[in-house]
Specification:
The protein is an alpha+beta fold. The chain has 6 helices and 15 strands. 31% of the residues lie in helices and 30% in strands. The structure holds cobalt (II) ion.
């Protein structure tokens, strides 16, 4: 079956990618010592809307040992210090996504900050129809280990589905035997993570990002109002607690979690004292390679 890469869905993936590339660069420029996390996250999310997209998930701001799923709380007063900062940002157009990430190093570890970007370029080089996901992981592992660091092996790249941020296939950050073949038209995010730690992240206790698990009828009024807003605005995409505009959102979320209507994404982190860096692009597999939708022009 042949895939038409001029289909509307691919055009929307591309449009999302173009907006996202611009927002990534503009947002990274604002990350400096003393600047507020909340200000940077809200800047990026607002800028995405100004340019005609919607945030596909809350802007992730990971600091030092944090790798993913951290976003400011509603009243967050944290500011950047001399730290390693990862920004992971997503845009969607009618549910068609682009996903990108960049490290801004304020900690003085330029090599660690560079390693995932070089690994990502090596991965992009080998992507073409028929490539095994394990072979992509091998490229990533090679480059990161060449720098003397470890890839984070329990975080992976992923497919991007309609209103779905994470679908099959997973794209490993190390060589694996069992992978799948990528095909023309597959739209995937490649996201190498490097660390001076052991290379495995665990769950922290903080949760600020949630997503709908299943629709259900809920009794509590606050929970019902929150659920209506979630279904209408975010559908199955991740959202931040600070995005909910209904009364008693805190309580509502707790209820919805207790009933398994929404699930939380705990912050994922390395052991304390280590640093994590990250780089990510979204690519569409083409007849003769791939098209990077989130490249700056
Ligand atoms: Co991603």
């Amino acid at each position: 079956m042949s895939v038409d890469l001029t289909d509307e869905k691919y055009e929307k993936h591309r449009e999302a990618g173009e907006i996202l590339a611009q927002v990534r660069e503009e947002t990274a420029d604002r990350v400096e010592v003393g600047v507020s996390h909340l200000e940077v996250a809200e800047y990026a999310e607002e800028r995405i809307r100004e340019l005609g997209g919607e945030p596909a998930f809350p802007v992730n701001i990971s600091v030092d040992e944090e790798a993913a799923h951290a976003t400011p709380a509603p009243d967050d007063d944290a500011t950047f210090g001399e730290e390693m900062i990862n920004l992971d940002i997503g845009v969607h157009i009618d549910g068609w996504l682009a996903d990108t990430a960049i490290t801004v190093d304020l900690s003085g570890h330029p090599e660690l900050a560079d390693a995932p970007g070089e690994a990502l370029e090596a991965a992009i080089e080998v992507i073409e129809p028929g490539v095994q996901t394990g072979a992509i992981g091998a490229e990533i592992q090679d480059v990161i280990e060449g720098y003397g660091y470890n890839p984070v092996v329990n975080l992976t790249g992923h497919g991007l589905g309609h209103w779905q941020q994470h679908t099959e296939p997973n794209i490993p950050n190390r060589a694996v035997e069992q992978g799948v073949e990528l095909e023309v038209g597959d739209t995937v995010a490649i996201e190498p993570f490097a660390t001076d730690g052991g290379g495995k992240v665990g769950e922290g206790s903080e949760v600020e990002i949630y997503a709908l698990e299943r629709e259900a009828s809920v009794r509590d009024r606050a929970a019902r109002q929150a659920l209506e807003q979630i279904v209408e605005r975010f559908r199955t995409l991740p959202f931040a607690r600070r995005w909910l505009e209904t009364p008693r959102a805190e309580l509502a979320l707790r209820r919805l979690r207790q009933q398994n209507v929404v699930h939380g994404y705990p912050v994922l982190k390395e052991q304390e004292g280590f640093l994590v860096s990250q780089k990510e692009h979204t690519v569409i597999i083409t007849e003769d390679g791939c098209e990077v939708t989130t490249r700056s022009r």
